Amino acid sequence: GNTLMAYEFAALGAALCWTFAALLAGDLSKQLGGITFNRLRNVGVFVVLVIGVSLAGLWPTINSGQLGIILLSGLIGIAVGDSFLFATMKRLGPRRAQILYACNAPISVLLGVVFLGESLNLLGFLGICLVFVGVVAAIMWGRPNTGGNPLHSWETTEGILLVAIGMGLMSALGQSLGAIIIKPVLEAGAHPIAVSALRVGVSAGLLTALFYLKSIEPRQTITRKHWILSGLNGVLAIGIGVTLLLYAFSIGDVGIASILSSTQAVMMLPIIWWKTRQRPANGAWIGAILVVIGMALIFSR
User: Fold this and answer.
1) This prediction's pTM
2) Residue among 211, 197, 252 at smallest CA distance from 73
């Protein structure tokens, strides 16, 4: 029926939102540092979501017994997961950070097998392998050939490559754990946007407290432009992107929605090409396509 198309469009829309949000984040995380940027965007998104949820009257869909789980999920998935993602972006740029983040699908499957007793068939196993091969290809052979020109800052590596890769995998693990923890709350009927608001709120609170208690990153002068762009990134990624994906999950096939939303790995490449004026190397394209095919195998099981 019509809902089929609606949820497929919603999932692709989520991927597109995340693509543009990642490009915004690429510059901001380099300027501000991952944790500082995550704090700004979470504060911005929290304000927008609270207004939206209150106007729509969605708070009653959450009961007080679910708060602990929602807060834990926000801490792990957003405060920890996203901070690692933007710390990775600062070190590796948006293309490689996002491809590492794609590991959250195989990690979720493996966590499901270990903790929830889910089964893993041959297709799923093949999918996991393909995602990892694609990620390795995109990181190791993805750099554009600039013909002797300097690399765009998004493709340079800051610090030690292995440390940055470890951070990227931590971001994927945080995302996976946060999602697994929150699943029963959503299945019990809590509205996804109200849940998002609380998850982002606890993350904003924690990161703000950290900021005032102990400066983990060098303090930056935060301008109005930083606030506006961070808020815009958050609204695109969480306010619109995550909401579209949750909408797709609620009306359609979760597997297909997940696959379509993972096309972000490929969508980023032409846009990065346009932005940096440097064509991503063949390894970047092959790696991104392998990631999406791997996701399709994982989610089709």
Assistant:
1) 0.87
2) 197
